[in-house]
Amino acid sequence: MASSSLTPPPEVPMKLHVLNRNKLITSLRDHLSSSSHPHHGFVLLQGGEEQTRYCTDHAELFRQESYFAYLFGVQEPGFYGAIDIATGKSLLFAPRLPTEYAVWLGEIKPLSYYKERYMVDLAFYTDEIATTLLNQCQGVAQPLLFLLHGLNTDSNNYSKPAEFEGIEKFEKDLNTLHPILTECRVLKTNLELAVIQYANDISSEAHVEVMKNVKAGMKEYQLESIFLHHAYMYGGCRHCSYTCICATGGNSSVLHYGHAAAPNDRTFEDGDMSLLDMGAEYKFYGSDITCSFPVNGKFTNDQRLIYNAVLDAHNAVISSMKPGVSWVEMHKLAEKIILESLKKGGLLVGDVHDMMAERVGAVFMPHGLGHLLGIDTHDPGGYLKGAERPKEPGLKSLRTSRALLEGMVVTVEPGCYFIDALLVPAMKSPSTSKFFSSEINRFRGFGGVRIESDVYVNAHGCLNMTKCPREISEIESVMAGGPWPIKKSVYFENGAC
Amino acid sequence: MASSSLTPPPEVPMKLHVLNRNKLITSLRDHLSSSSHPHHGFVLLQGGEEQTRYCTDHAELFRQESYFAYLFGVQEPGFYGAIDIATGKSLLFAPRLPTEYAVWLGEIKPLSYYKERYMVDLAFYTDEIATTLLNQCQGVAQPLLFLLHGLNTDSNNYSKPAEFEGIEKFEKDLNTLHPILTECRVLKTNLELAVIQYANDISSEAHVEVMKNVKAGMKEYQLESIFLHHAYMYGGCRHCSYTCICATGGNSSVLHYGHAAAPNDRTFEDGDMSLLDMGAEYKFYGSDITCSFPVNGKFTNDQRLIYNAVLDAHNAVISSMKPGVSWVEMHKLAEKIILESLKKGGLLVGDVHDMMAERVGAVFMPHGLGHLLGIDTHDPGGYLKGAERPKEPGLKSLRTSRALLEGMVVTVEPGCYFIDALLVPAMKSPSTSKFFSSEINRFRGFGGVRIESDVYVNAHGCLNMTKCPREISEIESVMAGGPWPIKKSVYFENGAC
Ligand SMILES: [Mn+2]
Ligand SMILES: [Mn+2]
């Protein structure tokens, strides 16, 4: 019978978002000082709106926009928030709800409720934004608004600056806020780490619950259902960080399996590998965890070879991570270890340095080693303004090329996949065919292995926040019914983790 | 230990959507003949596109647009579909996927795969729409396209007509298709009924699973989690028809509780009523089911009074439903029975006809009695073009005012709620205060009761497709651990249900 060592889910103090705001204002003032600009004006952000499906009244479950969530922690749609740069005062603007709201959607809360709950200094209605902000800085003809506008380097989309009635009465700055706020998000506070740790704990436990219940003959989506249920039932996680990837057999070489066109609907069989990439989100903060194992609970020699190649890469990277280390170098380290293992296993022949130079690593691991993680699964800030993406296969898929900094949370997710679309051309190419032994044909259709942990970079090294069984002996033991207790951390104590 | 009598979920034959297309073409030809228009041109629909969250690359789980799903049954995003009105031939246009798709998202399927899987006559790429359609009707200078444009009377939004490169080479008709296609959706085929029956069966079983596991001290969302898990794990339902409403105590008087601003997060207590409105969706077709019961499994006298008032209304309506019956009259019937019960229970005094005239029924049941159900929870077609919405309280909330027709699936969902925002003004109003006895004050904070079943109108009456415990004795027995087996229907046999 399912249960959890992690219930009840912890209360997350709203102070987390107060600190996020303070951090932003400190950074913003530093920036303004350094460019001799006065400390006046407002940061103004618009929260997300509820969306309906196509032309219908089907309301999609609302999830707050991430920058707004970061600064204000507001779970409801339709809000705006501002911070007075001179005073640091925070202002929240709530939608003025029609009286029918009380009948259909719930109690209409007074502004004082939002002020208290979200720990802001002042609360108004959204139809009062212009008058309120003008009132706050009497005497200034056109107060300055710092609006959010900037590129998300994973989606190539731009964030949408706030819009409201009366905005033409203000001067607008669209360039300053985005990079500074993004960099605040890159470096996590202790309170943020505590939430990410909880998301990791409950997700790790949910992965273990899945491992314990896998049986050949099940459908892939049943593993998704077990995970989702554990994370929600015991962890209070209504959202996941991303759509669950529950890939078995050959599907495990499809990096982003699980979407509507490949909806985890295969019946898996004895002997299949599985690759389960699933992470719950708690109070806006996510986790991103992948476990790979044979569905029957016992690794074959071939499975052992590929799994340990990836695990060695995973462990070597984590052992090397500390502030200052280049993420591109970590990616190459992972590639090197995987190639060495494949060579040792007889799948590849020749010099590993030569393979690296010919980018053979990217045939087996076409994705980046990992990415920043936080309120978004692919948290922003991976490329600073002006930074160029690497162009080489594999490296060009990196979501960040930065050097590690204390406070970053990064996923470490090496993988080794047998993808015909990449393998076949590489085996034929004049520059790379020589590296492939005929042994590799045995692995066509194998699928792939990915091992993904969420890692926090601290002053001297790093900390793996993910608590899943990783060694083959651990996985086989858990799948055979062995214990795998996940210790509840002290998440919040005197506001720290 | 949870299990299900309904596994494995049934295979839904693609013929369902072929029949939907045939039905549309027959209707459309009839319409064109009756207005002496020639049978030429194409019906052209654009399927849904995958959406990302705000500026990020977080992909929302795709759900097909409902009209497109109805005609083509396509689960993937980015498609278009057409039907040649003269020949009835169906054409599907698939997105041309980049080669990287194979690495990240899965095998790139050939057009023949889609042609076969979706049982269409021809398959092309979406960049071939204009040339293909022009080729199909050589000699016609500007072939006619019937595009989807019309009002959704629940959302007040308009469906978005298809757009594609080269559309300017065609003549467009924006008025004909929407009402005819919508009316096709109103009247279900046997194949559609079979899918709705399955969605009802698995959802009914999931509701029973919840009833068996409710305990005071739990969180509301844990009931949501149990429901979702049962429907997905055993029923293969990845989507629900709508966000789960798990309301307990006073929350059960909030009609659409459960959204992001009221996220099923209360801890419920011994003595609370619960109102659980949850329905799974299977292969596009939905269910919409509400159960109400005390969380401790034993009804008090007051709970019994309100529950039976609603159950009597529910049963009386179902006993009266048949083709030709006005849904407005059914709403009034439900109101009358509830008011009579409240009078019998001492909460109201005076003449029930007078109460009805003063719309006291709408104080206790401000929503409509029910709505069409199908691929959308609030399925379109509730108001025919030109039909006016009733204006009176309660009646104005009806999502349809039509007379019942054989083939409709309608929810029957009477409710009785104690909503201060409505009750307090009505108790004070000169025209209605006389009807309220002081007994009613005992029920302030009671919350509410709703009982909702999905009902199919057949030639001579109707059929309740929902299989939940409804009588108080049944509910108490199930909650005490008694059996409630749900018999697996024969869903598909020779293509019929
Ligand atoms: Mn990841
Ligand atoms: Mn309903």
TrEMBL record, chains A, B:
Any GO BP annotation: proteolysis
Keywords for the protein's UniProt record, in alphabetical order: Dipeptidase, Hydrolase, Manganese, Metal-binding, Metalloprotease, Protease
Entry keyword Hydrolase: yes
InterPro entries on file: Aminopep_P_N, Creatin/AminoP/Spt16_N, Creatinase/aminopeptidase-like, Pept_M24, X-Pro_dipept-like
Reaction(s) catalysed (UniProt annotation): Xaa-L-Pro dipeptide + H2O = an L-alpha-amino acid + L-proline
PANTHER family: PEPTIDASE D, PTHR48480
Family note: Belongs to the peptidase M24B family. Eukaryotic-type prolidase subfamily.
Enzyme Commission code: 3.4.13.9
Name of the protein described by the UniProt record: Xaa-Pro dipeptidase
Residue intervals of the Aminopeptidase P N-terminal domain: 12-156
Subunit and interaction comment: Homodimer.
UniProt KW Signal keyword: no
Molecular function in Gene Ontology: manganese ion binding; metalloaminopeptidase activity; proline dipeptidase activity
Cofactors demanded by this protein: Mn(2+)
